Amino acid sequence: NRIYATVEKGTQVVFKYSFKQNEDQQYLDGHYIEEIYAELPSNFSEISLKDEELSKVKLLFNRLCYCKGSAGFYKIKKGKLVLKKIKKNIYTMHLDFKMDEVPQITTTINETLIIK
Fold first, then answer.
1. Which residues contact 89 (CB under 8 A, 6 or more apart)?
2. In this structure, what DSSP letter does residue 3 have?
3. At 77, phi and psi to the nearest 5?
4. Gap between the Cα atoms of 48 and 51, Å rounded
5. From first to last of its 116 residues, what are the pLDDT tens digits of the chain?
6. Residues with Cβ within 8 Å of residue 45, at least 6 apart in sequence
């Protein structure tokens, strides 16, 4: 019952956000990484989704660490995502989310995106 993500060439835009800490190159598993993925339409002016609607953009949370039983991909089911076009290829993104299945450090993302 695990989720695995693959990125393939297509018409959608894949957004990936990474948070990294404790990256000790000396140890194979001496790191902690959180990633958030979304599959966005290639042409949009605004997206506003909440809770179960987040599945429309396949919003995923990936936890990479030596944390037995809680590493891997999870669907983000609780939160709010707002993307707005501000110029030709420039968008603002605001995401607030909460994971019930696993601990998380990242809970909010506020970014400006350039989508080509």
1. 114, 115, 116
2. B
3. -110, -15
4. 11
5. 678 777 888 888 899 999 988 766 666 666 889 999 999 998 888 999 999 999 999 999 999 888 888 889 999 999 999 999 999 889 999 999 999 999 999 999 999 998 87
6. 84, 85
